[in-house]
Specification:
single chain, DUF2256 domain-containing protein, 2 strands, 17% helix, UCP037205, alpha+beta, two-stranded antiparallel ribbon, 47 residues, elongated
Amino acid sequence: MRGVNKSNLPQKTCATCGRPFTWRKKWEKVWDEVKYCSQRCKTTRAK
């Protein structure tokens, strides 16, 4: 993903808040498994 414009990064919608979020370098290997935009949304969903 090096050299890609930020506007061209893949996006997903958060399962909790419904907001769109974009690909991050730390999610490079697990992008298919990412469902939440943040740790807060992940913990809120579990309750």
